[in-house]
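Q&A log
Question type: sequence-to-structure
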Amino acid sequence: MDVWRVEPGAAPERLTFHNSRVSHPTFRDRRTLLYLATAQDGSGPWLYAMDVRRREPRRISFGVETYTSLAASLDGSRLVVTVANPKGTLWRVPLSDRASDTTVPRRITLPTVSGRSPRFGSSSLLYVSSKGGSDGIWKLANGTAVELWSAPGARVIGGPALSRDGRRIAVSIEERGRTRLLAMDEDGTDVRVLDESLDLRGAPAWAPDGQEVVVAANREGVPQLMRVPVHAGTPAPLAAGYALDPTWSPDGRFLIYSGPDVGTTFVVKAVSGDGRPHPLRDLTLTRGARRLAFVPGRHALVALRGEIAHKDFWLVDLETGSERRLTGLGPELVVRDFDVSPDGREIVFDHVQENSDVVLIDLPPRQGRRP
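Response status: OK
Response body:
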């Protein structure tokens, strides 16, 4: 969706070009339009402002706070917003021959208030948790969790990625409207910036040899896969066209990614390590969650299928094209992200419970005008 303006007797005029979820257009004054919009990676909604004469939108909210509604006072000096306060918990469910119902998943005890985007290590579990307006990366092992990394006002884009040998972590972050790709050791030390020139989108993926990281980045308004060297070199395109959320196959010969939204669906595609298109059986999924994970040692995927707001886990055999439902979780379990264990026996997923708080914001006086 986008914001349009209609004047009496004139043709409709498009004001924004987000091509995402846009809502609650509210004028602060005759020139300043405020509204909410999600980013192309699905994050947000964020708060935007636009000078309607210049047609220049800018994001004016940063950090991890997201908004679900917006209104302005008549004099434009205050905003009232609903700030999303979702609570994420982590759960585990076996990957078996029988579909698991709502009684099977078991909650994972965490020392943090929330948890999302779980990723398996060889003997640990990484996840993302938020506190004090910042995201942090945590490591859970043997019942004990430690924070590996955090930064004031930083937001983790997608989830962390572990190298094949489990020794390095890559993560895309956003700070004050700018994105950076970081790499660190598995214990959170030796944090290095791999790139801060790209406009990153979604979670990264380590190449099988550990010498580069593949990540989606906006190029001329379209997310495309980029190869970012770990040690030295310039990022280079891997595949042309719309691409998000890369995931390498277990044998390292190719990676899969999600293509552009077409209505309420998107198509899953594949590309080889040298950038050539890789043949893949037709696979179309519903918007709402793009995460895909291979089952170790098999040419099979675990994917989320269902409605936009609620999905279940399905197993997709890439050789035969057959699909099998793995869970019947019920509408109360909303899943956004997950991972498959190294032994292929279980899935760990996050469950998001939506909550919101009503917040009053006093705006600074406008130049040349009384507050």
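Response note: The chain has two domains: 4-84+356-362, 87-353.
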